[in-house]
Amino acid sequence: MASSSTLMNRGVCVAQRLPVERRWIVSATPVTGLLGMSSGMNIGETEEALEARREQELEERRVAQTNEANDLEKLGRIVCDFLRVRPWALPSEGQSNEYASWKVYISKGFMQRQPGSTDCVRSILQRIMIRHRLKDIEKDITLPPLYHTPVYLEPGFFERLSMNLFLSGIASNSVASERVDKDYMFHPKNRGPLRELTNNLLKRSGFYWMGHSSADVQLMVSVSQRCLADPTKHHNKQDKELLESAIESGMRALGNPVWNACIRNSEMG
Questions:
Q1: pLDDT confidence of 154, banded at 50, 70, 90?
Q2: 3-state secondary structure of 67
Q3: How far is the C-alpha of 185 from the C-alpha of 264, rounded, in Å?
Q4: Distance CA 232, CA 248 (A)
Q5: Whole-angstrom distance, CA of residue 125 vs CA of residue 75
Q6: What does pTM read for this prediction?
Q7: According to the model, what pLDDT value does residue 42 have?
Q8: Domain map of the chain by residue range?
Q9: What are the CA-CA distances from residue 269 to residues 162, 214, 254 (Å)?
Q10: Residue 226 CB: number of other CB atoms within 10 A?
Q11: Alpha helix positions (H), the chain
């Protein structure tokens, strides 16, 4: 039996060779963010807030560059392989052998922000796409009123346990790293991992997964115990309580047979 990728490749080959007069693609959003991002200070924004936003935009830009490369590759397949727009498509029989390389003139130029590359991509999109604008859709479809009512959910035992393990990991890291250098989770260079951690804590730990493996929890407990027993460390009362709470939360999870079963089977409590 042929795989889905093989069938898709065969479908592309058939579509390329169909002797048709017009080619259409009906799609949702083939490319999502190729034309840049906003910058500059908002009205009433402080210098500190501006700096924090710039840091966030730089991180988002690094992620966006990967998405842009994928979007350009997807757009190239549409333009070159299916729609066969000249000069980007390989010439067919009876046509001139001259053509422009999509990767050289579009993908590479856009990713390197060469002058005129953004205008070129925008021009291609305008040539080949017919968009349904929101105001046009609203003329034909009237949506009912939206009523938004927040519902607060009381966490159960396993939700509280997962959230406490996340908090214990942060507490253990803070005390063990003495809140300095790159080992410290809140160090400026750890913004990406910290954002991922807090995202897991706030959005996922109580809804989609248990959040940890047994090895992760055992490591956190071990680090906390060694840090608490180290005679060279002079922890204040608050840091000692943080380490003791982290150890207690970790041991509670490791000693719970249902939690261990959920972790082994990737299930929710």
A1: confident
A2: helix
A3: 27
A4: 23
A5: 9
A6: 0.48
A7: 46
A8: 23-133, 157-265
A9: 10, 15, 14
A10: 12
A11: 4-17, 47-76, 102, 108-111, 117-128, 134-140, 157-176, 191-199, 214-229, 237-254, 257-265
